[in-house]
Amino acid sequence: MPVCAFCGREIVPGTGRLYVLNSGKTLWFCSKKCRVYYLKRKRKPEKEKWTVAGRKAKERRIALLSAKAKK
Ligand SMILES: [Zn+2]
Questions:
Q1: Ligand 1: distance of its center to the CA of 5 in Å?
Q2: Total structural domains in the chain?
Q3: Range 47-53, long-range pairs (CB < 8 A, 24+ positions)
């Protein structure tokens, strides 16, 4: 199953949209929200709370903070 290029969720067959760049790279989007955030607003997935990449970045920040607190 393809994974959304922005939020990282799996895309159910028959839904979502495939976007092909001029370079030939293909991007899958699960929703209009993800498409607009990626193509128009040019946001980084790591900076959004609701994406898989954003949650991982948050976990990394918490791990860093707790490692600092232990010192
Ligand atoms: Zn998505």
A1: 7
A2: 1
A3: 48/7, 50/7, 51/6, 51/7, 51/8, 52/7, 52/8, 52/9, 53/8
